[in-house]
Amino acid sequence: MKIFLKLKKGAALVLALFLAVPLVSCGDNDEDDGSGYSFRYTLYGNPKNLDPQLAEDRSSLMIIQNMFTGLVTFGQNGKLEYGVAKSCEVSEDGLRYSFVLRDDCHWRSEAGPEGVVTAHDFVYAFKRIFDPVMQSPYREKFSFLQNARAIIDGNMDYSELGVYAVNNTELVFYLDRPNSEFLYLLTTAPAMPCNKRFFEGTKARYGLDEESVISNGAFYMTQWSYDPYGSDNLIYMKRNYENSTADRVYPYMLTFYIDRDSSAPAENYDASVTDLYVSRAAQKKSFVTATDVKSYETSSLGIIFNPDVQINGDIKKALSLTVDRKAIEKICPDDLKVAYGIVPGSMYVADSVYREQYPAISFDFYKNEITDETKEMAKEFFDTYPGEAEILVRNTSDAGVVSKIIGDWQDKLGVYIELKYADDDEYYTRMENDDYFMAFAEIDTSDKSVYYYLKNVVDTLYGPDERTDLKSALDEALTYSSFTDRCDVFSRTENEIMLSGDYIPLFYRKLFLTYRKNAKDLNFNPFSEQINFRKAKYYK
């Protein structure tokens, strides 16, 4: 089944839907179809708040991912699929989204069934985001909704937000301006529905304990035990059988162990306590032989310049183009990959991987732009610079690679820049206070979207009044319905930043998902580090 969305410029966006065959299994299954398993996972830290309109920490978002279902969801292959919605129409101007909801998605708490999810639940959730009492951190993300900006600025009541329930199964959003990321944003935590009756019944405890949480997704919570001074800290979740009829839930149960020790996820996996774990370090050794590992490029690391230090653009470009990336590949740590662009390889535009269609540029093509005059200018600048010309780094493994780059600059440009190592506290303090000349920095995001990533890059590199042309171009790209038009803007923005030398990308940071080979169909978002277990299977 497919849906065709009418969009600006007459383009059509196809959203493929793959609804599971209605079949429910309970406990240990008799057939080896992978269903009926109880998956186990270690959370790093106790969830702070399971209120989707407020939650930001990764542990909370992991539980919310498995406890709630939005209008649309991300499927196994990164494609958008229907969740609670079963159809959607978008107006030609991109300012009206009309959803028709299923009538077989149910609310469930530990006390039992709590009724069917309706359009009113989504209206209530979105208005909570803009209720000034709530102070939701997600208001800016949805500021394109009709009247949202006026509400944020205090010029209109939040009840005037442009989202309406026509009836129990028809939901309409009005936008002040088109936004090509809207469907993606509907898959994120703040876009999950909220049951008003249940919420009010929790008496300000919503999302804070096991009696004050409710599910409309694949699993509901049965226990949440946490004692900061104890060791038996865990969350139990069971299959929501009412929601497995229309969209099959394969696992029978989920167990989340809670631990504040950063080494606990890997140790629990090696001890066969858990079935998988996520790490930012490459796996050196595992005592579990039947193991698979997938890696994802989720952030970029490179050299940035202090915005208060005036360096000629040709000098920055020369520093960027003289980095020998082929040479540093030989000494690159396992958790890094040498970068020839800014945007990491796992990023998406709509439901397509950006790098598969827009490869990074080749720096070799531009190296003839480094003239003798530029070399002399660079040497004179660093020879006469009155302060400390140094690169701030915070990781000893990073320091080895940066030392190689400093050597390249000395050999090819005749300039010397000192390496300055700092521990985490000093590093982040100096970065926050702009107390550095150059810094080896990481730029990441919790979103899969190229738009949000590049926006973070631009905001990191430039002040509010700098490079407004790049900021305006990115925002304008959000109004384009054409995939190619959007990607062309993203590619131009990325290449312009690189060739300006304002940011010298060196590596992509990898994230690793380690799991037992018996486990299949783990729907993993490497940017938010969430795993959706609805379709996860474990074969005997």
Architecture overview:
The chain has 540 residues and is an alpha+beta fold. β18 and β19 form a beta hairpin. α14 runs antiparallel to α15. The protein has two domains: 311 residues, D-Maltodextrin-Binding Protein, domain 2 (3-Layer(aba) Sandwich), CATH 3.40.190; 217 residues, Dipeptide-binding Protein, domain 3 (Roll).
List the helices and strands and how they pair.
Blueprint lengths: L1 E5 L5 E5 L21 E7 L13 H10 L4 E3 L5 E3 L2 E6 L5 E6 L4 E4 L2 E5 L2 H12 L17 H5 L10 E5 L2 E5 L7 H4 L10 H6 L17 E7 L8 E6 L13 E7 L4 H7 L5 E4 L11 E15 L7 H9 L3 H5 L6 E3 L9 E2 L2 E2 H4 L14 H13 L5 E4 L2 H18 L4 E4 L2 H9 L5 E6 L6 H12 L6 H10 L5 H18 L2 E14 L2 E2 L2 E3 L4 E3 L4 E2 L2
Parallel strand pairs: 3-14, 20-21, 20-22
Antiparallel strand pairs: 1-2, 4-5, 6-7, 7-11, 8-9, 10-11, 12-13, 13-14, 15-23, 16-22, 16-23, 17-23, 18-19, 24-27, 25-26
Helix pairs in contact: 13-14, 14-15
Structural domain tally: 2
Q: Taking all residues together, what is the mean pLDDT?
A: 88
CATH architecture designation of the largest domain? 3-Layer(aba) Sandwich
Uncertain segments are: 1-30
Q: Identify the CATH class of the largest domain.
A: Alpha Beta
Here the CATH topology of the largest domain equals D-Maltodextrin-Binding Protein, domain 2
Distance between the termini: 32 Å
Helix content: 25-40%
Percent of residues in beta strands: 25-35%
The number of helical runs is: 15
Shape: globular
In total, the number of strands is 27
Q: For the CA atoms, what is the radius of gyration?
A: 25 Å
Looking at CATH, the homologous superfamily of the largest domain is Periplasmic binding protein-like II
- Major β-sheet, in short? 7 strands, mixed
Structural class: alpha+beta
